[in-house]
Amino acid sequence: MRIFTAVRHSNDSRFYYGNLWSRNFYPALRELGHEIVECKVDLLQASDFMHTGCRFTPQEMGVRGRITEQIIDEVKTAHRQRPINLFLSYFYNAHFDPLGVDEIHRLDIPTVNFYCNSIYQFELVSAIASRVRFSWHPEKNARAQYLKAGANPVWVQMAADPKVCHPIPNVARRRRTCFVGQRYCDRDRWLASLARQGVPVDIYGNGWLPDTNSQHEEEKSQGVRWVGSAEANLEVFRKNVKQNGLVGGSFRTLRQAFYATETRRLRSVLKPHAKGRAENLSEVLSSYEVVLNFSNVWADGRLGSRLIPHVRLRDFEAPMCRTCYLTGDTDEINEFYEVGREIDTYRTPEELIDKANYYLRHAELAEKLRNQGYRRALRDHTWLHRFKELFQKIGLSSGG
After folding, report:
1. What is the mean pLDDT of the chain?
2. What's the pLDDT band for 251 if we cut at 50, 70, 90?
3. Range 287-310 burial, b when 16+ CB lie within 10 A, else e
4. 149, 156, 174, 363 - which has most CB atoms within 10 Å?
5. Is pLDDT of 32 > 70?
6. Domains of the chain, CATH where assigned
7. Cα separation of 35 and 380, whole Å?
C-alpha cells in the first residue's frame, strides 16, 4: 500500500510528538512492504492549542484551516502521481478541520486516525474521530465513548520496536528499582511510598527536579495551575464552578488545592532520587534490577478527578528491553501478559513495596520474569504485529 501519514505534531523533534509516533510506526510499515508518503505540513502551530477541544478562537480556526487546506493539497498531489491507499493520521480536533476528511474520502482514500489519550481526553479528538473512517484507539475501554460520538472505533493496542527498545548485553544491573517518565497524576505518591520504606529507587524524567518551569508545566498538564497567584487560583475556581456547579466546583477546588499542596511537599522526599532525563531508554531500563511503571490517569484529564488505570506504551517498551517489570494492575494488562510469570503487577502501595523488595532480594526470580516477559514481547507485542492486526480489522492487506 501507499500510505499518506500525518502523525508528527511538529516537524522539529524537540516539540510535542515530533518523532515519537513516526519512530514507532514507520519501521514496521516499511518492513511490511508499504510505501510511506509523509506529510510535509508542520502541525506545530496547531499543536500549540491542541489541548483545546472546541470553541477555538478566530485565529486558531484560521491556523487549522490553513493546515487543513495544505494537507489536502498534498494528498491530492500525491494521489495524482500514484494512488494513495490509506490516510493515517494522529490528529487532535485542533490539527485538522473534520470537514476536510470528506475531501479525502471523495478521493476514495480510507482514513484512520490514531489517538492514545481516549480514556481521559476524548473530547480533544471527538470531532475528528466521528468523521474519519476508522478511529484507532489503544485503550480497550474507550470504545463506548467513540460509539457515543458516532465514530467507528478500532481497538489495537500499542507496542514496541525491538530495534529501538532492546536489551543491552553484558550490562551490570544495579540492585535498585527505577522509574522513567514525567511527573504526572499520582506517580509521586507511589514513589514516595517506596522512598519512605527505604526501597532503593531512581527516578528519570521531567518534573522531578526542583525547576520552576517544569513545576508550572506539570500543574498545567494536570489541568490546574496552583502557582501562588490569586488570579490564577480564582480562574481555577471559576472553571470548576462552571463545570460542576457551585457546591461541586467548590469541593473540586478544595481537592485540587490539597492535592497540589501535597505534591509540593513530596518534592523534598523525591528530590534525592531524581536523576534527570533518561538519554537512552534501553540503557537505563537494562541497568536496573526492577523497572517500575504507574498506570493511573485523571478521569477527565484534570487534577482531582477519579483515577483510572490503563495500559501504557511503557508496558511494551520495558519488557522489550528485557526488564523485571512491575506495573499497576489492570484487567487489560492480563490480556497481554501472564502476570507473575512474564511481568508482575500491584494494586496497593503495600503490594508495590513488597513486590519491589521481593524481586530485589531474589535475583534468580527477577531474571526468570525478565526472560519470559522479553520472549512474550518479541513474540506478540511488536508494531509489526499491531499493524497486521489493524489492517486486518479495517479490511486492508497487511503486505505491500
Report:
1. 90
2. low
3. bbbbbbbbbbbbebbbbbbeebbb
4. 156
5. yes
6. 2-158+382-394 (3.40.50.2000), 174-380 (3.40.50.2000)
7. 24
